[in-house]
Amino acid sequence: MKGTNLGEFEELVMLAIGVLHPKAYGVSIKDELTERTGRQITLSAVHASLHRLAEKGFLESQFGESSNKRGGKRKKYFFITAFGAKTLEEAKLMREQLWKDVNKVAFQNN
Amino acid sequence: MKGTNLGEFEELVMLAIGVLHPKAYGVSIKDELTERTGRQITLSAVHASLHRLAEKGFLESQFGESSNKRGGKRKKYFFITAFGAKTLEEAKLMREQLWKDVNKVAFQNN
DNA sequence: TTATTTTATCTACAAAATAGAATTTTATTG
DNA sequence: CAATAAAATTCTATTTTGTAGATAAAATAA
Questions:
Q1: B53 CA to D23 C1', in Å?
Q2: Is residue A3 in some structural domain?
Q3: Which is more confidently placed, A72 or B32?
Q4: Buried (b) or exposed (e) across A7-29, using 16+ Cβ within 10 A?
Q5: Of A44, A70, B15, B101, whose CB is crowded by the most CB atoms within 10 A?
Q6: Considering its fold, how many domains does chain A have in total?
Q7: Residues A24-62: tens digit of each pLDDT
Q8: In-domain check, residue A35
Q9: Which CATH number fits the domain that encloses residue B39?
Q10: Is the pLDDT of residue B33 over 90?
Q11: What predicted TM-score, i.e. pTM, was given to this entire model?
């Protein structure tokens, strides 16, 4: 990938942010994806991905106010940029088109 | 990835094989994806991906007969296994569900 | 003020994506 | 038949993504 494509996990992180908007931060994203994918996702995997996505211009972030919960650093909320939304939608469209053109026989041979 | 997930490019290669079935081999896959993605895809990228997908059990291959064209080694045709089809469909379903639950406002902030 | 909880950041390694060179096989041409 | 050209796969190396675990920081509770 040359920086303008979304990796597999990166795309899932972006979508989770869309689902959780406007309360998407490390832990909530991790929980959302753990539930949906059934994989054991670590917080650091999510954070590494968030950092890279922000660098690529797909995300912006903003620190939240301190909560009434027990502790913790301030949450860093993530938002999808216009560029990020465009990229995400293009990936979706391309796959939809491919699926539409798939020869169904290809799935019946085993 | 722990071996049971499809990478971003790997998924595109699988779908291209579905589209091209039963004539999917290195060059035809490369051409199909170059056209659809607009990226400059190299043959070696496709082959590396095919090799990994076959190792993971998502693809099978079979050498074709020699053609009447000028030259070249025999084409190695690739086919999607039942396991590959299942994996591909699961990835599709998970994304569809995420998209369904996306808060549309997340795409209107920029 | 010390401990506990919640969060983010850092460091390191594994796997996938990408690029380019090398090799193999086949057919054509002289 | 030897030399050349074409079509394809395979090899080698590097960068980018994915994953894990340890560490650090900030906030509240005790």
A1: 37
A2: no
A3: B32
A4: bebbbbbbbbbbbbbeebbbebb
A5: B15
A6: 1
A7: 999 999 999 999 999 999 999 999 999 999 999 999 999
A8: yes
A9: 1.10.10.10
A10: yes
A11: 0.94
* Predicted local confidence at residue B108, as pLDDT: 83
Chain C nucleotides reached by a protein CB under 7 Å: 4-12, 15-21, 24-28
Q: Is residue A1 part of a domain?
A: no
Interface-testing mutation among A25, A95, A108, with chain B (most B C-beta atoms within 10 A): A95
Cβ B19–A81 below 8 Å, yes or no?
A: no
Contact B18 A94 (CB under 8 A): no
Q: Does B92 reach chain A within 8 Å, measured CB to CB?
A: yes
**Structure tokens, A83:** 């560029």
B59 touches A at CB < 8 Å: no
Q: What is the pLDDT of residues B67-79, one digit of tens each?
A: 667 666 889 999 9
The tokens for B37 are: 């993605």
Length B103 CA → D23 C1' (Å) = 35
Domain housing B28: 8-103
Please check whether residue A101 lies inside any domain of the structure: yes
Helix (H, G, I), strand (E, B) or coil at A71: coil
**Directed axis angle between helix B8-20 and helix A8-20, to 10°?**
100
